[in-house]
Amino acid sequence: MHFATVQRILGLIVTMFSLTMLPPVGVSLYFDDGQWLSFLQSFGILLVAGLALWLPVHRVDRDLRLREGFLVVALFWLLLGLAGALPLLLGDRPPLEFTDAAFESVAGITTTSASILTGLDRLPKSVLWYRQQEQWLGGLGVIVLAVALFPVLGIGGMQMYKADAPGPVKDEKLTPRLAQTARALSGVYVLLTAACAAAYAFAGMSGFDALAHAFSTVSTGGFSTHDAGFAYFKSYPIDMVAIVFMFFGGVNFALHFVAWRTKDALAYLGEPQFRAYLFITVTLVALVTAYLLLTGVYASPSDAFRYGAFQVVSMQSSTGFVAARFDGWPGMLPPLLVLLTFIGGCAGSTAGGMKVIRWQLVLKQAQRELMRLVHPSAALPVKLADKPVPGRVLAAVTGFFAMYLVLFGLLMLLMMAVGLDQVTAWSAVAACVNNAGPALGSASVTFQHLPEAAKWIAIAAMLIGRLEVFTVVVLFTPTFWRH
Asked: Which of 2-16, 286-300, 364-378 has the highest mean pLDDT?
C-alpha cells in the first residue's frame, strides 16, 4: 500500500473541495444574510489542510493501483462529509453541534434527503444554497467529476473510477480516455441541471428556488429550501417538472450521453435496464394512484395521480422529495414506498438503492435455477440484451445482495439497540442505506430527535450505501492490507 500516493491525492481533493466554499460567500453577500465569514473561514481552513497533506508528498510519482483507489474513494467520501460540516459549525444560523453538522453534511454529499434541520424557510439563503450545492456535487460522484481534472494534475484516475462507478459492470467507458468519459458525464449532468432549472422557473418557481431545486432534483438528493418541500409551491406544473427530472436523474447517465450524441430518443428503449425501470415506475404509479382513489385519500383522479406519481418516482429514484405526507397514507402504501427505495434507479445514475440491473440479474438467475430443477443437465446461460452475462458478474451481484441485506439487518438491530422502535429503525436504515431520506415513525419528518448514537449509525449507513457496500467492506478484510 503506497500511503504517500493516497495522501497526495487526498490533499489535492481537499484543496479542490475548499473552493466549493466560495460560491456560498457570494450568495451570502448578495442576500446580505451575514454568513459569509463562516464560509470564508471554512475555505481558508480546508485550503491550508489540503496543502498540508499535499506538500510533503507532492513529488511522489507512483501509479495508483486498485487497492489505493478503493482507499482513496472511501476516505474521500468520509473526509468530504466531515469537512463539509465545517461552515455549519462555524456559522451561527442554525446553531449546530458536531454530530448534527456532520449528519447534515454527509446527507448532502451522499445525496440522501434525510435531514436534522427544521425552519428551512427562515434559514439564511447562503446556508440553503450550500446544502443544495453539496447534493449537486455528490450527485454524479465528486470523484468522477474530479477525474476530468486529474490529467492536468498528473494523476491517473482509472482505479478510482472503477472503485466508485455504480453498478455491477465497471469496465465499460463511454470514450477511450477516462478524462473524456468524466467530461462527457459532467457535460450531460450540467445540461440536465440547466434544463431542470429553466423548467422550474417556467413553471413558476423563483430563480433561487429553481436553481436550488434543480441541484437536488438532478442529483436525486432531495433537499428543499422549504420545510413543506414541494407542498410549499402548491403547483401542479412544478410537481410535473419534478417527476420528469427525478425520473431522468435515475437513468444511466451513459444512456443520456448516447441519446444526446446520436440525437435519438429511442436509444433509451433499446436498453433493458431502462425498460425495466420504466415498467416498474409505470406499474407502481398506476397501483398507487388506484389505491389512493379506492381508499378515498383523494377524490379527484387528477390529485391521486399527481401525488401518487410524485411519491413513487421520488422514492424509486431515491430523491426523497415530498409533495404529500405519505407516511399517513393508508394500508400498504407507506411501507411499499420505503421498500421501493431498495430497487432504486439504474446503474450509472445518481440514484441510490441496489439498482435495477442487479434486480434483473438476480431474478434471471433465480429463473435459471428453477429451470434447472426441471432440466438439470441443460445449459442455461443468464442473458441480458441477448448477451450472456459473465459468471464473475453474477457472482458479484449475488455477493452484493447478501452483503447488502446482512449490513441492513445489523444496522437495523443497532438502531433498535439505541432505543428506536421497530418501524422507525427499519425505515430509517432503509432511507439512509438506500440514500433516499424519507422514513416512517419518529423519523418521518426529521432525524433531529433521534439519539446521537442513532445519527452516527445513520451516517455510516449513508456512506455504505453511497459507496455500494463492497468499497467499504473490503477495507475491513485482512487480504486488502496484506502485501
From this structure: 286-300
